[in-house]
Amino acid sequence: MSNAAKRIVRIEVGAVTLQAALNDSQTARAVWEALPITGSANRWGDEIYFSVPLTLPEENPQELVAVGDIAYWPEGPALCLFFGPTPVSRGSEVRPASPVNVCGRIMGDATVLKAVRDGTPIRIVRPEEK
């Protein structure tokens, strides 16, 4: 098993707890090193984003993402959790406000995040952290 395969994180947002796998990008490594990260959830359609204490360059920026993707938004700077269309999506596509660095993927059903409201505390931690 590679080090990248071991980069599993726990996302806690309100009553919702999810696991996610970070990829092997430089962005994902920076997120991993910054853990734990806490913030306040902001909803934008079926996306949650929250400010993070990271300033990272664009890395393979994507204009379209998939349900379940986790991405760093350089313009925020913020982390984004995608679970459906956003206000700028066309049809069922999942489109960020501007290009993002995809750095991970939610394991399981990302649509449970639909229950999260603006202002809900959010934490991303390593699995062993309490």
TrEMBL record:
Gene3D superfamilies: 2.40.100.20. Residues 9-124 form the Cyclophilin TM1367-like domain. InterPro entries: Cyclophilin-like_dom_sf, Cyclophilin_TM1367. It comes from the Bacteria. This is Cyclophilin TM1367-like domain-containing protein. It comes from Thermodesulfitimonas autotrophica.
